[in-house]
């Protein structure tokens, strides 16, 4: 049995470890089958006790009915009323308990949506919230939200259009940061290993805080962004709203250094860059590229602004840039 998989079902993995596991599941058919088997076993274990409760109620009802038929006609009517009432209570209690526990079990049954490199996806959650996922991103979400709140977890980048519900806040967890909203539109950029987390607010308001530090939260206003780096949060205006066009299949860069563009292309296309001449890093570029364009097409466009040589090793998926 895979140890990392067992730790996942024991809720002992960190966000970056979960992403690593999901990437392994995508590539390993045997591991994927084992994941599905364990997920099904978890769901069945949560529901098994409820079936027995219902069967027990029906068994008692049959016993009561058999006893009723043994009595005289006169006493039959009296006892029918008595036992029917008792049976209805048992069955009603069983149904109520089954529904209650089924709701609880469903809340804890988590689903996973992983988007591979070079792709994007859109999903509508049970409450009507719409979520767009960028490449190399994973969303963990329940089939049904609880009565008290709506919680999801994101690894990577996602755009949320949250359905309004004043009684149930919508909570997004990503690495060591939480975001709490009632109804709003915002973008979360949180790839493990990039060194920072960024949230851009488009509409409504969002409370951002580090886990277990809600009293020190900041509240974003529309057209504001927060960058969390090394434990500190910096709020500023959204300087380039066009970078949110990714959800429409467009990658936009506005006066960005090649080193920053390369960092994003590595995430989006699952390639590794090697730059032998650091001077290339400092050249700035502005442009838009459609997601369906290949990494080679994008690099050729960048070449026209500032020439550099491109060498690609397809076996290792490494791209080398030189002057």
UniProtKB/TrEMBL annotation:
Transmembrane segments: 83-102
Tagged with keyword Cell inner membrane: no
Annotated FecR protein domain residues: 113-207
One matching Pfam family: FecR_C
Annotated Protein FecR C-terminal domain residues: 251-316
Coiled coil: none
Keywords: Membrane, Transmembrane, Transmembrane helix
Single Gene Ontology MF annotation: sigma factor antagonist activity
InterPro entries hit by this protein: FecR (IPR006860), FecR_C (IPR032508), Ferrdict_sens_TM (IPR012373)
PANTHER family for the chain: PERIPLASMIC SIGNAL SENSOR AND SIGMA FACTOR ACTIVATOR FECR-RELATED, PROTEIN FECR
Protein name: FecR protein domain-containing protein
């Amino acid at each position: 049995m895979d140890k990392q998989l067992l730790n996942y079902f024991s809720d002992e993995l960190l966000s970056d470890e979960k992403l690593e596991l999901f990437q392994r599941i995508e590539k390993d058919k045997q591991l994927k089958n084992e994941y599905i088997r364990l997920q099904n076993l978890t769901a069945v274990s949560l529901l098994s006790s409820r079936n027995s409760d219902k069967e027990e109620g029906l068994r008692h009802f049959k016993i009561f009915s058999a006893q009723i038929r043994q009595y005289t006609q006169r006493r039959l009517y009296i006892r029918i009323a008595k036992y029917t009432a008792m049976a209805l209570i048992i069955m009603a209690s069983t149904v109520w308990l089954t529904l209650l526990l089924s709701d609880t079990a469903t809340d804890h049954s988590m689903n996973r949506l992983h988007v591979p490199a070079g792709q994007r996806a859109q999903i509508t959650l049970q409450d009507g919230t719409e979520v767009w996922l960028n490449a190399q991103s994973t969303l963990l979400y329940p089939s049904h939200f609880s009565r008290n709140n709506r919680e999801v977890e994101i690894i990577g980048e996602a755009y949320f259009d949250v359905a309004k519900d004043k009684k149930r806040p919508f909570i997004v967890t990503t690495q060591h940061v939480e975001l709490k909203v009632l109804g709003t539109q915002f973008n979360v950029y949180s790839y493990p290993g990039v060194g920072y987390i960024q949230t851009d607010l488009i509409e409504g308001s969002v409370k951002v805080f580090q886990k277990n530090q809600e009293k020190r939260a900041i509240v974003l206003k529309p057209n504001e962004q927060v960058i969390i780096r090394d434990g500190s949060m910096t709020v500023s205006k959204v300087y380039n709203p066009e970078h949110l066009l990714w959800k429409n299949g467009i990658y936009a860069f506005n006066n960005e250094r090649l080193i920053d563009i390369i960092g994003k292309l590595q995430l989006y296309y699952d390639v590794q860059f090697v730059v032998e001449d650091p001077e290339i890093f400092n050249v700035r570029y502005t442009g838009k590229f459609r997601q369906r364009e290949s990494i080679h097409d994008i690099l050729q466009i960048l070449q026209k602004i500032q020439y550099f040589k491109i060498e690609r090793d397809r076996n290792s998926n490494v791209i080398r840039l030189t002057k």
